[in-house]
Here is the input.
Amino acid sequence: MATRLEFHLDEHCPSAVADGLRRRGIAVSTTGEAGLFGASDEQQLAFASSRRRVFVTCDADFLRLHHSGIRHAGIVYCHQGQRSVGDLLRSLVLLAESLVPEDMADHVEFI
Here is the structure.
């Protein structure tokens, strides 16, 4: 069982965020790497959850999925265009350093 948060970035997250997380030793996957371009939101969230990864997105549709009661390993939501790459990276690093996977289960964190 993972003791540190791991992330899955959706297709709207800049690749520089994934690179920055990896440089800091934080496990991360991306929609592109997973071959999930064009997959439904439900499939993408299920992929991340099956790997106990917190889903990072700017897509409000994932908030609707959360409110519908779909179980997940956690969602980090950032309104598109509101944060720089550096701000997003710092926020994710802070979450990874402060929380454990159980803290994020079925939870949405707004950054």
